[in-house]
Design brief:
heterodimer, A: six-stranded mixed sheet, 15 strands, elongated, B: 12 helices, 82% helix
């Protein structure tokens, strides 16, 4: 495989459905990093991931993975990627031993030892049928399978949704371990922004099929802030400086995208740090401008 | 491909148990009938004819094993859709031809195992009961096994085309129903034709011999039976004479369905409408 700087490069991806369009999406997942892919339900995260995995084909645009075209070099790419979905995609009559027998004959670099080590670590039984697994067990099983064939890229579609905080923490620690190898990268879609705040290096926000923000997480968090003021003070603020504002009976809270500039412009203004959750909520309401 | 073959065999374990149970139950029943023909009441009261009938029915009774295997591909592919394996396999480093080929191979392995099992049982029972081994019956059995393989291969395409368990099973049922109706119509044609010929012959004989039909040394039913057996014999001979042509035709048709299935599998998952009633396996 040639050298590459981005594990995934998405250029101008457009996909049209009735009532929804993924519109000219472009972003990169740098090698050796975790990209948090954030958006509401129905924003287009799964559509984007399905496009990367060549499960669906875009109407326009291109995707390259490891510097290779994801359609022309599909088989080569898929030797080195692992996908984790929100629902277990394995037959309920199988058990972990059966799955090992199947996957070791599919992936050249499959390691049964690694797989069973993860099963032990996750306390997953090897002979119990998957139909009897809980949701957390099913997710851990998928992750164990994903991490057992030396994949360079992990693509996770809402993999931690519906899991309790203890299990989610455990899984996030595993991902940080996985990234010790600089050749490894993760694209993780989620609307649980607290998970992404913990581990993501970069974030991409999408809403209604459109790209809102993409960049390093720290840069995004540093540049955005929640400006808090009274309703009378809010009237004097240039509306171009805010993304959207939440009007409450106590005052106004507005998201600004250039915190330092706003601090300079509105001296004395109180601008608190914004979380990824705040950023998502305020951006989603950007068309309304003012909401409550 | 090996991984997919193993997957196919793993998820069909229950079907294999049903197949084995069906086969050995039918075998046991046949052995009991045979022993009764030789040593028991059937032999005492019905004589040698019953034993001959038991010999013949042996080969056809075990078709039950192959009939159970008809659903092999339908159930496995339906199970793939319900479990969403069909989406997961799109992330595997395999081409669509490899995936379809693996299913075909698993199908062939299963049916070959059934034929070999029956071959072994046949040798054992022929040795035990002193039955003359007739290769013809095994040829018929093998031909039926090829038909089952072919039906399973054809069944795969509608599942990949529609990505719906309901539509796939409906298409397979229509195919099976079509085969059944075709065989029924063919058999009806033969029996009708034989009955017609027997009636004409009986009338001619009665006229020639100047006697009533009831006084003739042969009955219309017996004559019809003879004509039917003769016509079926001619048909069998024709089929056997041209068996290689039929096999080549079946192989070409199977190859055509193979490429159509691979092409259908290659299509993007959103190329079909989202399944009705929230059926799993579709990408919305």
């Amino acid at each position: 495989m040639e050298t590459y700087s981005n594990a995934i490069e998405i250029k101008g991806i457009t996909k049209r459905y009735d009532g929804f369009t993924l519109d000219g999406l472009s972003f990169n997942v740098p090698k050796g990093s975790i990209m948090g892919f954030v958006g509401q339900n129905g924003a287009g995260k799964s559509t984007t991931i399905n496009t990367i995995l060549n499960i669906i084909r875009p109407d326009e645009g291109s995707v390259s993975v490891f510097g290779l075209d994801n359609i022309r070099d599909e088989v080569e790419i898929k030797k080195n990627i692992a996908a984790v979905f929100d629902e277990l995609p394995f037959h309920e009559t199988l058990n972990a031993k059966n799955l090992n027998s199947i996957l070791k004959r599919i992936f050249d670099e499959w390691s049964s030892e690694t797989f069973f080590n993860y099963l032990d670590r996750f306390s997953l039984p090897s002979k119990k049928k998957f139909g009897q697994f809980s949701k957390g067990m099913k997710m851990k099983l998928q992750i164990a399978a994903a991490l057992s064939h030396n994949a360079r890229l992990l693509i996770m579609d809402e993999a931690t949704t519906g899991l309790d905080p203890v299990v989610r923490n455990e899984i996030l620690d595993i991902f940080l371990e996985y990234l010790q190898n600089e050749e490894h990268s993760i694209l993780m879609s989620s609307h649980i922004t607290s998970d992404l705040e913990k581990i993501a290096d970069s974030v991409t926000f999408i809403d209604k099929g459109k790209l809102l923000i993409t960049g390093y997480k720290d840069d995004v968090l540093d540049s955005h802030g929640i400006l808090k003021c009274s309703r009378s003070d809010y009237e004097s603020i240039d509306k171009n400086d805010i993304i959207s504002a939440r009007i409450t009976e106590f005052g106004v809270e507005a998201l600004v995208s250039d915190k330092s500039e706003c601090l300079r412009k509105y001296s004395g203004a109180v601008i608190d740090a914004a979380s990824l959750d705040d950023i998502m909520v305020y951006y989603v309401n950007r068309n309304k401008k003012e909401w409550s | 491909m090996k991984g997919i073959i193993v997957k196919e065999l793993f998820i069909a374990r229950k079907r294999f148990c049903i197949t084995a149970a069906t086969y050995f139950t039918l075998m046991l029943m046949w052995i009991l009938v045979k022993m009764s023909c030789l040593y028991g009441n059937i032999g005492k009261y019905a004589g040698k004819g019953a034993d001959e009938a038991a010999k013949t029915t042996y080969y056809f009774a075990v078709f039950g094993m192959l009939v159970v295997l008809i659903g092999f591909v339908i159930n496995n592919t339906g199970s793939d859709i319900v479990s969403r394996w069909n989406i997961y396999q799109k992330t595997l480093p395999m081409t669509s031809k490899q995936l379809v080929g693996a299913v075909y191979l698993a199908n062939a392995v299963t049916i070959s195992a059934a034929v070999l099992t029956h071959l072994l049982m046949t040798f054992i029972l022929c040795a035990i009961f002193g039955i003359g081994f007739k290769a013809f019956y095994l040829e018929v059995f093998a031909a039926f096994a090829v038909i089952v393989f072919f039906f399973n291969a054809m069944s795969l395409y509608p599942f990949y085309r529609f990505r719906s368990v309901k539509k796939g099973k409906l298409a397979a049922s229509v195919l099976l129903g079509g085969i059944y109706v075709g065989l029924y119509i063919a058999l009806y044609f033969f029996t009708n034709s034989s009955a017609q010929k027997a009636h004409e012959e009986i009338s001619r004989l009665a006229q020639e011999m100047n006697v009533k039909i009831s006084k003739l040394p042969v009955t219309e039913d017996k004559l019809a039976e003879e004509y039917l057996l003769r016509d079926l014999g001619k048909l069998t001979d024709t089929l056997l004479d041209f068996r290689w042509l039929f096999l080549i035709g079946a192989a070409l048709l199977t190859a055509g369905v193979f490429f159509m299935s691979a092409k259908a599998l290659d299509r993007p998952m959103d190329d079909t409408k989202p399944a009705e009633n929230g059926e799993k396996g579709a990408v919305s």
